[in-house]
Amino acid sequence: AIRVRRAKNEHESAIPHIQYTAEEDACWRDVLQTIKKKSQDLACPEYNAGLEDMLAALGPEATTRVPQLADVDKVLRSSPGQFRVRPVGGLLHPRSFLNALAFSTFHSTQYVRHPNEPFYTPEPDIIHELVGHLPLLMNETFADCVRHVGRASLLAPECDVWHLTKVYWYTVEFGVMHSKSVDRPLAYGAGVLSSIAELDNLAGAPDNGVTFLPLNPYEPLPKISYNDGVQKFYVSVQSLRDMERKLHTFADFCENLYGQGVSLKTWRHLQSLKNPPGEVARRA
Fold first, then answer.
1. Among 63, 134, 139, 280, which residue has the fewest nearby CB atoms (within 10 Å)?
2. Among the options 24, 46, 173, 198, which is catalytic?
């Protein structure tokens, strides 16, 4: 496991306690119960184990009331993933969000989606964070994957930040795996795991036209789609171990490249001059 040293902040502010309404608690229960049922067949086993472990550590009230972020933070810190969670009011700048991941820090919202639409939210709310992201951050291998993405961003020039955001998007948010032991794709990305529509979309693949692309963080990735409904394709890995190896190598590569003052965009251009079109290969 990778461990990035972080400075101690003796004055780190406490995570605010939120008084959730009865309607918000009901929304949490509805989503949690539905996701738990669907995830048994559609999520990777590491996610299902992480969700059960997280809920057990939080106590019986966690299934009926929205858990407090401060309690979740304690559970994450003591888990094999050793992440911590910090509150944020909304979306951070991509560089700030990614950089924090390198230091085992995940920024989470605390607000709840509108109770009238329990299975949809236009922006990440605490249900998305709790059901989608945090269970797998308890897993050491997955937590290392997330740290690798963050580590790749630390020295990145501005022109590469959006590409690294896409690497995060197509793995941590919308990644799936094709395990050799299971004949169907399994979700590990939070955007899939916290969405009934996305889980149903994945369950219908490939008959519904959904396609799968292998993870290649070195090459340009497709445009991120926020407003087109469910995903038209997913980026796939064989396992969390497979993803960890690829992202570890990628982060090392980025650190070396950026240390020389070269961007990924420039590196790809140089590779295209050395290789025929369509045969650009990664040079270790």
1. 63
2. 173
| Cβ-contact 243, 175 below 8 angstroms | yes
Residues contacting 14, CB < 8 A, separation 6+? 70
Active-site residue flag, 39: no
Q: Which residues contact 187 (CB under 8 A, 6 or more apart)?
A: 39, 42, 43, 44, 47, 175, 176, 193, 198, 199, 202
> Which DSSP category does 119 fall into?
T
Average pLDDT per 10 consecutive residues for the chain, totaling 284 residues: 42 84 94 94 96 97 96 97 93 92 96 81 87 97 98 97 97 92 90 92 93 95 80 95 98 96 93 66 44
Catalytic annotation on 107?
A: no
Q: Which of 194, 195, 236, 239 is catalytic?
A: 194
The active-site residue, picked from 107, 128, 148, 163, is: 128
